[in-house]
Automatic annotation (TrEMBL):
<dbReference type="InterPro" id="IPR008969">
    <property type="entry name" value="CarboxyPept-like_regulatory"/>
</dbReference>
<protein>
    <recommendedName>
        <fullName>Carboxypeptidase regulatory-like domain-containing protein</fullName>
    </recommendedName>
</protein>
Amino acid sequence: FAELHSPQSPQGMSVADQYGWDLITIEAPIDFAEVFGGHPEFGNGHGSTDVNTEINPGENYFVDVIFGDDPTDTGWLIVHVFDLDGNPINGAQVNAWGDVAYFNSMTDEQGHTIMELPPGWYEVTAFAEGFEDGYGGSVEIFSNEETSMDFMLEPDQDFELTDFEISINGGDVADIEAGESATVTIEFDDTGAEPYAGMLAIFYDANFNDYLDPEDDINFFEEDGEGPAVLLVDNMEPDENPEIGIIELTLGAQEDDGPGFLTLFQNTSWLFTSYDPDMDDFGNSTATLNVTGFESDYSISGDTDPSTANMMVFAILADSAGNDWDTEPHMTLTQEDGSYHVAVADTGFYLIAMEDGLEIYGNLYASPSFQLVEVSGHEARIDFDIVEYDAMVSGHVTNPEGEGIWDAEVNFRYHDDDENVHIESDAWTDDDGYYELWLQEGYEYDVHVWADGYMEHHNDNVYIEGGGFEYNVTLEPWNNEWGAIEGTVMDQDDNG
């Protein structure tokens, strides 16, 4: 005698018979249907067909509606799906999945849907015909609480790509000081079809020859997981020029445009180029942005031993309250001869750090990884040794049921201030919960493992020896309960 209803049915609510059966008419054809239930003893229930089931007129489909015995444990995810003009999208499919189960629902005429979910972390997506897929990221559902999420879906357009010429600050080559902005202009061939669209790639000139070499240079978007290039469409974000056939965009640290931060890297060159996906070819039109240092009476410079190019270097003012490290142009990369020079704006104590930030080498690290430097002028000979990791650490991060946890962060660190030895390496797990990273053997590491929806793992006594080392971790789900923190406060002589 459970009350049942389906958003895809025109008949409204019905009641299951004494055997728990009911027949619900569904509007067809449709590729998905779900049933919600309610019962005074067993709480709320839910069931659905698989996605893309292809429900056809005249056919029968069976769905289990599962009821929980404690309805107070669940929470609600309220989703609103609309287009760029704020109009609701009817019939959008919303999916939510976590470590326990997979749920889906469809929006009504107001673009709303409500999903009753067990507490925990979920990934949420929204799909609608004629629109680009929407990804809402991770959301946590709490018992007896409502959580809201909005999706703004962009129109799904199959753009015709048009050849274009690219320039920076009006020319093929532009020079700016670190921290300055640059204007990228794309002019389309007027024989193309409106709206004009093209694909743009950005390469870091990793071999220092001032030419585009896709095999040797570092593809900015590919390293960021966005594919070989990004699609730019005339008069759509981030285009700042309303004129038809011309796209302009500003690169700058203050601009929220993704690649703007590259204008902070002193003494680097960046190649902006076209991409032809049909030919998988770059370089029909290319412009170069050279970012130099800025005029200053203060700087930090040094070398690497052995000489190692393209190691990332950044200087952070030790007084963090007065340091905006993500917008200050105090970054660079080591040059072809392994040297570096970074201008800084003022005097003071700086942490100068070096790492394989572009992940070119994978098994190299700087020792020490950072140094404290008092800057009162041009400080030279702040050198770094480049050391090769000699131990591969790998393993799996799983839940108590043995299932792999995706996107868990695994961090190994060793810090000895007296010996000025600082080693830190981290990795993120794949879909199977697997990770691997490089370390230096012969040290006892502090290990931390984090994942959304799980308790943190911490082990401060992991000794690495041998060329290969396996370290597996099981994370307990976070149960939203109170815990306790205890510790000891000691003086400089280690007295409690």
